[in-house]
Write a structure and sequence with these properties.
Elements lengths: L2 E5 L3 E2 L5 E8 L8 E6 L5 E7 L6 E3 L7 E6 L4 E6 L8 E7 L3 E2 L3 E5 L2
Parallel strand pairs: 2-11
Antiparallel strand pairs: 1-3, 3-8, 4-5, 4-9, 5-6, 7-8, 9-10, 9-11
Length: 113
C-alpha cells in the first residue's frame, strides 16, 4: 500500500536551517507530483510547495519563497524540503502529499529561541 513517512523535524532557532524528508513506497514515485503542506498550531492546512515528476516545475507559497527549496530524488523515492532562514511562524506540522490523494503522518518543526 501507499506509504509516506516524513522525518527530520526538530526544534531550531530563528534564522536556522533544517531539512525534512518524506520517504515514499507503494507506488511509482517518479511518476507522481508531490507537495509539502503544513499546519500551524490552531490553524488550517497551508500549502507550502509543489514539485512535478522531474524537478522541473516547482511552485512555492509566497510565505516561504526564497527561503525554502523543494527537491526530490526519484532513485531513492524521497521528497525533501530544505528550509533556511526559519522564522517562528514556520512552526507547524509538515506533511508530504502524493498527487494520488495520500498523506504522510507529518513531522513537527518548531522554530523558537
Amino acid at each position: 500500500q501507499v506509504q509516506l513517512v516524513e522525518s527530520g523535524g526538530d526544534l531550531v532557532q530563528p534564522g536556522g536551517s533544517l531539512r525534512i524528508s518524506c520517504a515514499a513506497s507503494g507506488f511509482t514515485f517518479s511518476g507522481v507530483y508531490m507537495s509539502w503542506v503544513r499546519q500551524a498550531p490552531g490553524k488550517g492546512l497551508e500549502w507550502v510547495s509543489d514539485i512535478n515528476t522531474g524537478n522541473g516545475n516547482i511552485d512555492y507559497a509566497d510565505s516561504v519563497k526564497g527561503r525554502f527549496t523543494i527537491f526530490r530524488d526519484n532513485a531513492k523515492a524521497t521528497l525533501y524540503l530544505q528550509m533556511n532562514s526559519l522564522k517562528p511562524e514556520d512552526t507547524a506540522v509538515y506533511y508530504c502529499y502524493a498527487g494520488l490523494g495520500h498523506w504522510g503522518q507529518g513531522t513537527q518543526v518548531t522554530v523558537s529561541s
